[in-house]
Amino acid sequence: MSALPKRRQDATEARLTNLRLPVSGGWTLPAREDALTRLGAMGLPQRRDEYWRFTDPAAFNAVEVAEAEPFQNDDETPLFNELKPIEITFVDGVLDPQARDDLRHEGLQVAFLSSAVETDIHWARKVFGRLEAAGQVPVPRPFATLNTAFATDGLLIRATKPVARPVAIRYVHRDSRSDAILHHVVRVDEGASLTLLETGPAAARLNTVMESDIADNATFHHVRDQGRTHLRQAVTSVFARIGRDATYKSFTMTANGVLTRNEHVVEMLGDDSVAHVAGIAIGDGRTGRFHHDDTVFVTHDALRCESRQVFKKVLKNGAVGVFQGKILVKDGAQKTDGYQISQSLLLDEDSQFLAKPELEIYADDVACSHGSTTGAIDETALYYLRSRGIPERDATDLLVLAFLAEALEEVDDPVMAEALQDRLAGWLARHAG
Amino acid sequence: MLKIENLHVKLEEEDKQILKGVDLTVEAGTVHAIMGPNGSGKSTLSYVLSGRDGYEVTDGTAMLDDTDLLALEPEERAAAGLFLAFQYPVEIPGVGNMTFLRTAVNAQRKARGQEEMSSTEFLKTIRAKAAELNIDADMLKRPVNVGFSGGEKKRNEILQMAMLEPRMCILDETDSGLDVDAMRLVADGVNALRGEGRGFLVITHYQRLLDHIAPDFVHIMADGRIVKSGGPELALEVEKNGYADILSEVA
Ligand SMILES: Nc1ncnc2c1ncn2[C@@H]1O[C@H](COP(=O)(O)OP(=O)(O)OP(=O)(O)O)[C@@H](O)[C@H]1O
Ligand SMILES: [Mg+2]
């Protein structure tokens, strides 16, 4: 670690003191050792790093986990229950063998990182740590590298055919000091399709990585809800590698959470594919600080691909929203259709939205656009609704949901979209005024 | 039913007096028309009655029967039975027209302690009323007023009025932007609600609408006041001679 500036090196070493590579790492060990070496060379992020300009990484670097009281969710049934997903539950980052459905389904293979030593899973070996490593250029993502080295568990999930039922990872948070590092690996084979749901707050502090390898003609839908715990902190990194004629859609809903950094790295490597990454974050500073950061990097390295980034945030009582989004179109990636929109609705003057949208284009025949806006509730629209008898609170909620609609439209399944909309409406009702 | 007395209104942000003592009474079952030059304060009167921000009432009262309108929030005025068809209907992206109307109908019912309308009943009612106004199913599904033509927006206002069945209806230049056929549809919509103890205040620049909706009384507003009131013949006089004669006569 000698090449690093002292502060960065000290911080990195401090964070690593209590972490050990798993003895039972089996086939994952080489990748973990490689990650540890890479982490040593890059060090953990510091406040002054350009990529962390808007979000202080200190809480993720801290050796001690800040306490987060688990949230007792007794007024809602588990999200997406009506879809009857195949469920796998992690409690504070530990697999709960009781709450695990039968995982034998047509076209589906599921294994666990924690039992890697027992089985050599060839397909996962080609993905685990590889997509994460590839995603370190041009911007380092040290928390993902730390995750590859030290993840204690995670799903290794492969679809060899279209999988009829969605798979849901249910996260349960019980311990106010839990510190979870989970690493999921997803492979969707040629012609296969899979829907993966993630719901709930995983721990007081969470670091997750999801590496998704989406083959030619494959479809992968990823929908997650990061749970209602107020003081939890999460840094998540999703790496998606997309083949030819493939579809990738990822949607994240975040309500509450004192600190969230969701990184998303998408590489479009095959021609004629589609990748959409969307998110809704709603935060109320009154129930605890709320700082939510979406950092997205989409690379076009193939012909005629379409990418969309749609991120909407609703912020009140001093909540802070961040969006850093980039579309990189490599030389030769002609006919790229890239779109990026990031918008925030500030419900008062104390809240804040910081955005850094970027386009970097090296091909000459492309259509790329990006936009970012910050605004308040439209007073004229509010008056119009009220003049028809709709009370101010309900009228405001209608306008907030209307603002969020474009992002929610990114969820293809109408049942899922409606379930998410209900949760958003519920949140608005609880956070009125 | 609607009794406005000595209403003085200024802009909240500026020291500009717009209404300078409006007196007007609309009895139940009657239709009153207000005409007047551009900028005389007709829309301001309708906004102030419906509770729009940005205006300050410096003097006077506005009562809907026993209800002091000026003391209420806009939604409470609506629940009390007041309706304004806007001169410039507002576009609301992301809110479906149908959702909007169902929410409004049920919010008013709730405020009055009535039961909510079931979705089947609502659908049946809205389909029938939309058909009468030549509003197709597609317009009902689209976001409120977004991408509607000028005339479609005005018809959508009348659809809202028909669904909400208010007691006191103010129509602010609902005729502007309407083609001849649409004007007839709108007038039919108004006439269908006429009577039954309802009051109408129809703001217009043209006799054309009044051909279809025969008013009981016509008022001329100028510089923030009602300067002349009369019967339907007053509108014909304006149509023929403009405002110059009337204004010099009252000056
Ligand atoms: N919010 C405002 N800010 C500035 N001026 C205003 C505002 N509202 C009204 N006014 C002014 O008040 C006066 C009356 O306006 P109002 O819209 O009520 O007129 P009107 O009689 O409806 O005119 P028209 O026939 O053109 O619709 C105008 O001079 C207008 O410019
Ligand atoms: Mg006007």
UniProtKB/TrEMBL annotation, chain A:
Pfam families associated with the record = SUFBD_core
- One biological process term in Gene Ontology: iron-sulfur cluster assembly
Question: Which SUPFAM superfamilies does the record cross-reference, listed alphabetically?
Answer: Stabilizer of iron transporter SufD
All copies of the SUF system FeS cluster assembly SufBD core domain together span 178-403
**Which InterPro entries does the protein's record reference?**
Fe-S_cluster_assembly_SufBD (IPR055346), SUF_FeS_clus_asmbl_SufBD_core (IPR000825), SUF_FeS_clus_asmbl_SufBD_sf (IPR037284)
Q: What is this protein called?
A: Protein SufD
Give the organism the record lists: Oceaniovalibus guishaninsula JLT2003
From TrEMBL, chain B:
Matches recorded under CDD domains: ABC_FeS_Assembly
Per its UniProt entry, which superkingdom is the organism in? Bacteria
Q: Which PROSITE patterns match?
A: ABC_TRANSPORTER_1, ABC_TRANSPORTER_2
Report the InterPro entries cross-referenced here.
AAA+_ATPase, ABC_transporter-like_ATP-bd, ABC_transporter-like_CS, FeS-cluster_ATPase_SufC, P-loop_NTPase
Keywords from UniProt, A to Z, are: ATP-binding, Nucleotide-binding
Indicate whether Nucleus appears among the record's keywords: no
Residues in domain ABC transporter? 2-248
Q: Which family does it belong to?
A: Belongs to the ABC transporter superfamily. Ycf16 family.
Q: NCBIfam families attached here? A: sufC
Q: Which PANTHER family does this chain map to?
A: ABC TRANSPORTER I FAMILY MEMBER 6, CHLOROPLASTIC (PTHR43204:SF1)
Q: What is this protein called in UniProt?
A: ABC transporter domain-containing protein
